[in-house]
């Protein structure tokens, strides 16, 4: 049994504690930590774990063998560096950290430790729909990808959600999954700002259209619309030389009533990606004994952050901005 400590017991933290406690095999949550005592209590109640007031104390606790970091992105770096120092395996929710510089510091610390310790929570790589699209692309039957049309729509966000968060918090998923899907790297990005919805607020330009160009010349458009009102709607179509592959929608029955034909659209990521989170976390646990990170690693977290920083710059300038890493991918990750 892998003994895990969870840092951050908010919405996603409690979702993961429940998953680790009630669904995933070979793991138990023995400790939790959250600066908001009420959240720590709610988290501990799910798993019967010990509450630590401080995240660092939790990481240092001898009974804690591995760590889940589910605090807000700005608070990820410190626990990650401590876990690396102590050689403890980590599952870190996205983003790895909020700036490329911080991510690089984490990458360098992991490389220096000589151990593969960190998985970044880009769960879409484990989603059945994206995996089907990747398998179709890899079959070669459709030729090379040329264009991708994607949407990332949330029903609504709070007043604390700002324009850059459309990148760091939301499009960060597309940034990771689309480069994995196309097996390509980003060259440049641009952001178009359409008319703002009446449901937005002063700190948020919503919707946004993010354009990414890969090194092989694939052009990607991602509509990020976080107050779309009608549901949680994730779409991805890859247009190739010999055909087009559109990701399957989650399957719900078609219902006929009152002269109308309807189906269900999910309303949040916890439902839309439930299976992906389960598969992702089981994989992280299963690989623990092998000392391997089979999913997205710290380098993937860094690459995503570099691209995110370029997109945030593009939001401000309106220009096409280059995506440039400060270092080449270390041998350690090849
Ligand atoms: N993969 C995915 O689809 C999703 C990932 N996330 C990620 O999960 C993480 C947490 O997000 P949510 O649970 O939605 O946020 P939240 O705001 O609901 O919860 C965050 C929790 O962390 C606690 N916290 C704040 N500072 C802390 C610190 N320094 N150390 C420990 N805990 C601290 C807060 O008190 C709160 O209980 C973020 O990194 C977010 O991006 C969130 C939702 C979906
Ligand atoms: O990661 C997530 C949230 O943090 C983010 O706020 C949402 O926009 C994303 O759809 C969700 O997957």
UniProtKB/TrEMBL annotation:
Its EC number is 1.1.1.18, 1.1.1.369. Residues 134-319 form the Gfo/Idh/MocA-like oxidoreductase C-terminal domain. Residues 2-117 form the Gfo/Idh/MocA-like oxidoreductase N-terminal domain. It catalyses: myo-inositol + NAD(+) = scyllo-inosose + NADH + H(+); 1D-chiro-inositol + NAD(+) = scyllo-inosine + NADH + H(+). Pathway: Polyol metabolism; myo-inositol degradation into acetyl-CoA; acetyl-CoA from myo-inositol: step 1/7. Keywords: NAD, Oxidoreductase. InterPro entries: Gfo-Idh-MocA_inositol_DH, Gfo/Idh/MocA-like_OxRdtase_C, Gfo/Idh/MocA-like_OxRdtase_N, MI/DCI_dehydrogenase, NAD(P)-bd_dom_sf. It is an enzyme of class 1 (oxidoreductase). It comes from the Bacteria. Signal peptide: none annotated. Homotetramer. Belongs to the Gfo/Idh/MocA family. Involved in the oxidation of myo-inositol (MI) and D-chiro-inositol (DCI) to 2-keto-myo-inositol (2KMI or 2-inosose) and 1-keto-D-chiro-inositol (1KDCI), respectively. This is Inositol 2-dehydrogenase/D-chiro-inositol 3-dehydrogenase.
């Amino acid at each position: 049994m892998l003994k895990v400590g969870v840092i951050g017991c908010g919405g996603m933290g409690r979702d993961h504690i429940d998953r680790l406690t009630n669904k995933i095999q070979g793991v138990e949550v023995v400790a939790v930590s959250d600066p908001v005592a009420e959240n720590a209590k709610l988290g501990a109640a799910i798993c019967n774990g010990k509450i630590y007031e401080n995240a660092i104390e939790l990481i240092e606790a001898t009974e804690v063998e591995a760590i889940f970091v589910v605090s807000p992105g700005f608070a990820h770096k410190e626990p990650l560096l401590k876990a690396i120092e102590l050689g403890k395996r980590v599952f870190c929710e996205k983003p790895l950290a909020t700036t490329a510089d911080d991510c690089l510091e984490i990458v360098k610390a992991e490389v220096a430790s000589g151990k593969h310790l960190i998985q970044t929570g880009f769960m879409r790589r484990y989603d059945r729909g994206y995996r089907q699209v990747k398998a179709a692309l890899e079959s070669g039957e459709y030729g090379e990808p040329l264009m991708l049309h994607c949407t990332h729509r949330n029903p609504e966000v709070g007043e604390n959600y700002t324009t850059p968060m459309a990148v760091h918090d939301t499009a960060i998923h597309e940034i990771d999954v689309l480069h994995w899907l196309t097996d390509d790297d980003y060259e440049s990005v641009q952001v178009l700002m359409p008319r703002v919805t009446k449901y937005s607020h002063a700190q948020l330009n919503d919707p946004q259209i993010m354009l990414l160009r890969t090194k092989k010349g694939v052009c990607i458009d991602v509509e990020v619309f976080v107050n779309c009102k009608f549901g949680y709607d994730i779409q991805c179509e890859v247009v190739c030389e010999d055909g087009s592959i559109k990701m399957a929608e989650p399957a719900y029955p078609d219902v006929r009533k009152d002269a109308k034909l309807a189906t269900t659209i999910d309303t949040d990521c916890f439902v839309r990606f439930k299976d992906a989170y389960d598969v992702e976390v089981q994989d992280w646990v299963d690989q623990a004994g092998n000392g391997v990170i089979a999913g997205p690693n710290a380098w993937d977290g860094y690459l995503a952050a570099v691209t995110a920083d370029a997109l945030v710059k593009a939001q401000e300038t309106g220009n096409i901005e280059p995506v440039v890493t400060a270092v080449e991918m270390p041998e350690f990750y090849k």
